[in-house]
Specification:
The structure holds two protein chains of two kinds.
Chain A lengths: L1 H8 L5 H21 L7 H8 L5 H35 L12 H15 L7 H22 L5 H25 L4 H9 L7 H19 L1 H7 L3 H6 L4 H23 L5 H13 L3 H25 L8 H23 L1
Helix pairs in contact in A: 2-4, 2-14, 4-9, 4-12, 4-13, 4-14, 5-6, 5-7, 5-8, 5-12, 6-7, 6-12, 9-12, 9-14, 13-14, 13-15, 14-15
Chain B lengths: L1 H17 L7 H14 L4 E5 L2 E5 L6 E3 L2 H9 L6 E2 L5 H8 L6 E2 L8 H7 L3 E5 L7 H7 L2 E4 L6 H14 L3 H21 L7 E7 L4 E4 L4 H8 L3 E2 L7 E3 L2 H7 L3 E6 L5 H5 L9 H4 L3 E4 L1 H7 L2 H15 L3
Parallel strand pairs in B: 3-4, 3-6, 4-5, 6-7, 8-10, 8-12, 12-13
Antiparallel strand pairs in B: 1-2, 8-9, 9-11
Helix pairs in contact in B: 3-7, 7-8, 8-14
Amino acid sequence: MKNKQKFMLQRNVHPNLILLVLLIIILILSIISLGLGAIYITPSEIIQNLIGEGTSSQKFILSNYRIPRIIIAIIVGSGLATAGAILQGILRNPLASPDVIGVTKGAGLAAVIIIVLFPASPIIYLPLAAFIGAAIIAVILMLFVYKKGAQPNTLALVGIALGAICQAGIEYFMIKFPDDVSATLLWLTGSLWARGWDQVYILLPCLILIPLLIGLTSKLDILSLGDDIATGLGERSKFLRYILLGVSVVLIGVCVATVGSIGFIGLIAPHIARRIVGSKFKVLLPASALFGAILLLVADSLGRGLFPPIEIPAGIITAVIGAPYFLYLLRSERKKT
Amino acid sequence: MSGLSLILLLAIMMVLTGCNAPQNHTDTEKKEQTTGEAKESKSKTIKHEMGETVLKNTPKKIVTLELSFVDSLNTLDVNPIGIADDNKKDMITKLVGHDIDYTSVGTREQPSLEVISSLQPDLIIADAERHSAIYKDLQQIAPTIVLKSRESTYQDNLDSFKIIAEALDQKEAAEKRLGEHKEIINEINSKLSLDTNLTVLPAVVRDTSFQAHTTSSYDGELLEQLGLKVAIQDEQPYVEMSLEQLVEINPDVLLLANNEGKLLTDEWKENPLWKDLKAVKNDQIYSVDRDLWTRFRGIISAEAIAKDTLAKLNEK
């Protein structure tokens, strides 16, 4: 319902107003999310805590667990969604997402190797390995497509092939080491459990990368016209595609390294955004980022609040919400044409 | 413009959270410290898998994140206030032997830090494998010791028990109990009538896997202590096996800890190779409790396993 209303709004409302509304929604969701979890904290108690007059145990929970998790959900959600929107733009394929170009699978394989083969290694190795895994796949991907002039189709196909190889590796380790399957699956679905301020610091580069990408958006609009027109308009399309691809891959790598390979956000958020603000990248990218943040924030809050003290990994919730919604989107797209 | 608004959002979030920077239970800690010093000021340092932890008093409110620690505390007559029980209260009842009052802190894989912190424990006992990633978070809540539990051997487990006893100032009681434990194990060892040349193979059966436990697994090592010969001598505690490999090893006795639901062995029973197994021919296949044999681990559980073995193998 809400979507429809906004859909109606799009024609006569300034896009910046929509972005502002989304921002306010995120703020409200953040405050609701602060209360949810194994220990329920009422809104009035939250306000008391924010002005410094709460019980010490609530304050401890809020400042050590809930606040950093909310920040991480917002950054990772917007990071994955921005990267997804850009990939859909440069590949000119609505199905493109961080999964499709194989980067998350590369991170997944590296993480599984660490979980299964080096269970005693220091904690920092896991995100580091995941990031390196993502980077290796990205480098191979770029080398493969370099000669072909980074054509969208080659990119997607090579990405899918690389992803399939990594997936095979992941499955090999899971079959070989059935005792570690639950730990592995947990990482592969992605969860914000026990993520705290340390992970917020790892994510800080995203705070620079996301606005940087959004700054490059006017170029994306030109690229989406096709290489010939883009070149005609004076853009070096191959170079530009490389830069955009590179930055989004780093973004995905950092996000996936901190929370695991949470799926669907990079795919769905840009689609929702496109329905509401249209397909001009200048508004689409920030709107996607905000929708991504909303999605992950909701998924994590639900995962925490549904069956305490057991947590449902955010990745499962994004898939449960995301997959049916995606089907619905596909159906209504078809109706329109 | 729009990039700007995004930065604005993040800035707002930062400000919101900035006034609430990470903080510890310092106030409460200080209070405890002073009251503790008034009573008794013997602080001790406990060495564990991830370093050293200072305990100022004898811990009273303990949270355990693995099942074997519950067994250890039970052996020392202490009830934990919080247990990572995977939401299975009856499993804990089975482990302890009767109902106990505690708060569930979620799964062993992902215990809820929020619930643990709300219990305000004065000691957390965590597993070296599962919880090393959250050691820092736990340490922020309360003094934490990290010990081997998951995939630990029988000897590891006894060592962990000693450390827990030390943390609880029950060193002497623990030594005494360990002595009794050795006697019980030796007694059962002498009562077991099975020919010592016969081999025994404990294994976990799931729907798609048959996982043999070797001499370096918990139950394998315990069976050796009971004077039995475990069929696979290996440094790897668990070995995945096919039916062909099982026939190759051909153990005289099979102790199967079956998972819930469909089992791989149901399929194998249709296979002519299955009937070639010595254990099948001589009717020496026993099913054992999955929780007790492969999940619990601990002094009381080890004794229960030993008695179970005695009862099953001496039947004939």
